[in-house]
Amino acid sequence: MALKPVIVQSLFDIKRDKWDNFKMSYHTYLHWMRNVLSIDNPIVVYTEEKFFKAIYDNRKVYDPTMENTKIIVQKTEDLTAYKLFYKRLENLMQTQEFTDKAHFDVPEMTKPLYNTIMFNKLYWLRNARDNKFFNGDVYVWKDAGTYRED
User: Whole-prediction pTM value?
Assistant: First the structure.
């Protein structure tokens, strides 16, 4: 029996283009994301309104009828992980005790919104599965920047 995998991914503005380190433009992420969107599999994309058109236009090239694509627009503040963790992470990451122990200047240690989006991946996967999008047998996470080469 062949598996029917469904790719799940997201793109949200976590202000990465304004960071001091690990800065990246969303133009670049949308370019990389095109590589995942070109895969001939059902794809569920969670995103915010500002990225919808670019994602839709990129995917439509590979799925002209959009029958294998579901794009779900959400506000960052409505994400489960945001509601559960963002304020607590922000408060923790600003404490002297935390900053004294943060030995590396990486997003995981300095950007609570980055962590919130990372944590939400499990909720998106569960949402896609629970809603039986495309009746998949397995739901696979692929970051927007997974495939950086054409």
Answer: 0.90
Which residues in the chain belong to E strands, given as ranges? 5-11, 43-47, 69-73, 138-141
Could you read off the pLDDT of 30-74 as tens digits, one per residue? 988 999 999 999 999 999 999 999 999 999 999 999 999 999 999
Paired residues of 72 in beta bridges: 46
DSSP code at position 6: E
Residues 6+ apart with CB under 8 A from 110: 93, 102
Query: What distance in Å separates the CA atoms of residue 3 and residue 42, rounded to the nearest whole number?
Result: 12
**What are 87-105's pLDDT values in tens digits?**
999 999 899 998 888 777 7
CB 120 within 8 A of CB 81: yes
